[in-house]
Amino acid sequence: MSRITVFDPARRPRILAAASAVGGEEFHGPLGPLFDYHDESDRFGADTWEHAEGALSHVVLSLALKRAGMDHREPDVLFAGDLENQCVASHEGLGSFGIPYCGLYGACSTVGEGLTLASLALSAPGGARVAAVVTTSHYCAAERQFRTPLEYGSQRTPTAQWTATAGGAFLLSRDRGEVEIEAVMPGRVTDAGLRDPGNMGAAMAPAAADSLLRYLEARGEGPGDYDAIVTGDLAKDGSCWLSELLTKEGVLIRERHFDCGTLLYDYEKQDVHAGGSGCGCSAAVLAARFFPAIARGEMRRVLFLATGALMSPSSLLQGGHISGIAPVVCLRRREGDV
Amino acid sequence: MSRITVFDPARRPRILAAASAVGGEEFHGPLGPLFDYHDESDRFGADTWEHAEGALSHVVLSLALKRAGMDHREPDVLFAGDLENQCVASHEGLGSFGIPYCGLYGACSTVGEGLTLASLALSAPGGARVAAVVTTSHYCAAERQFRTPLEYGSQRTPTAQWTATAGGAFLLSRDRGEVEIEAVMPGRVTDAGLRDPGNMGAAMAPAAADSLLRYLEARGEGPGDYDAIVTGDLAKDGSCWLSELLTKEGVLIRERHFDCGTLLYDYEKQDVHAGGSGCGCSAAVLAARFFPAIARGEMRRVLFLATGALMSPSSLLQGGHISGIAPVVCLRRREGDV
Prior knowledge:
The structure is a homodimer. Chain A is of the alpha/beta class. The first copy, chain A, has 2 domains: about 5-175, Peroxisomal Thiolase, Chain A, domain 1, CATH 3.40.47; about 180-335, Stage V sporulation protein AD (Peroxisomal Thiolase, Chain A, domain 1, 3-Layer(aba) Sandwich). Chain A has 10 helices and 16 strands. Chain A has helices spanning about 25, 50-70, 90-95, 110-125, 140-145, 200-220, 235-250, 260-265, 280-295, 315; strands at about 5, 15-25, 35-40, 75-80, 100-105, 130-135, 160-165, 165-175, 180-185, 230, 255-260, 275, 300-305, 310, 325, 330-335. In chain A, strands 1, 2, 3, 4, 5, 6, 8, 9, 10, 11, 13 and 16 form a 12-stranded mixed beta sheet that branches. In chain A, strands 7-12 form a two-stranded parallel sheet. The interface between A and B is large, with 68 and 68 residues.
């Protein structure tokens, strides 16, 4: 059981508070009213898209700290990452809090990696008492860096996803909060030989399938043991491929599967092609939609598979592939004081 | 003590094996004979510098596994990172091992962040039994990405550092190995307002000073409690600035201070300006020079401060700064079975 860490039920890490912030497009989607903060201009007071993402990360951690009634000096460690080169949005936006910092790169899966490592840091004897996790993404910064600047007006293919301008922050504690982390499992790097930067879902679906099958087998469980199986940002096409891959293995999740990238936008009214993606997509939707549902007891046990496409533009130009990864976090409503 | 994790002496994480690999310039430096593997061409069998770094990461983990007599299926988790955008060298070079993967970005300090998180993962009840840490850097890939491609023949300033073509791998265990990890502490992001990509030492020295002072104060210790205080890659100028910053606070380390970036090259014969830098610099020198010295009992207690300059070329063009970070790892010879 060492690849999956199942925490002692009496000492599970707990999520004390979560906060979310989004841009205009995300605010106008079906989850709009659930987000804690939005900026219609996507600028968050900054003068470039890259700096806007840093400002977004600062806003979202400030909101989570306020909700927890916590001073910025209280978290012992901060796990953070984003999609910009050198994860610059995170350390520029969050450095001024002065919280000991661990930078992560898990592409769009970073919030899952962060929750995993924060949980381990809280569980280690002598480790952190309070840990923060923050991840963000920004549509305009991501398009410029990974594909083409928006000003070029490139055509997007039907499988292309819309990198969410969004961020989520979580504060984890050893002894406070209604949502517990029951188990965590890091993902493996899966390489299906893909090379299309307009089709991230295809790169992530095999990773999600690999992680879900390994997880369920190790725990001796099936999808029916969960109220919801939530993937990060497979979007419309990736979700179908995950369903196909799992069906081949006799695992059926469709009726309890939710995908953050699919939930974020209104496909009828918004021109987002396959749906949402990005570090901030799964983080904001987890913070705004699923975390409160678990805290209120509407869902009792949720399996969260953050999904990431490890895509490097320079490697693609050199013949490299787009790998995928999907860390797993099992969340549950705390029992006893419901 | 929650920002510094001091492990229970009976249950300290242990480093079972380490391995290093370097390019030609590093092999011709004073530490050359200590490295486990070198490639005079810096290509490691690959056709681009970026892919060469991936190949280097694969070689160095293979060597560490061989030294430990360990199959690639044994590590429960792998912490890895490098300097390439999207940390692509690490997941491309290491993904095929199939080890559950956590990607890190701590710039040149990544090996310190990796050892910190691996130690916490081993200590958490139900956590990993064996963890791997791998970091790499490549001179030609880094110059092209962060400054200018080598073909441009740009002039380098005296404070410029030479990103090492190097990598280090460490295998950590709960119950095997002569070198123990006594304590770990994540670094804080320090922003001294610097903007010169030809002077990384200036950005890292304040971070190293911040971490060392916080660490020594929290533990009630002084530099004299250590056989060596080893910084990652401050190089010649950064080491002087660290010394000045500490002297102001009444802390004198000079006689026991070693810097991996300063040790790696021969300043008389090699044109490396201020000295070495990079994720792989501190990892390879720790693996080849200090880890064996501690394992043999020549050094009993060593404080390792990996240093990183969180430099983003795109942020610099937008008026951003180069921040620094320096996680701390306290290493010691295992007692009892010496």
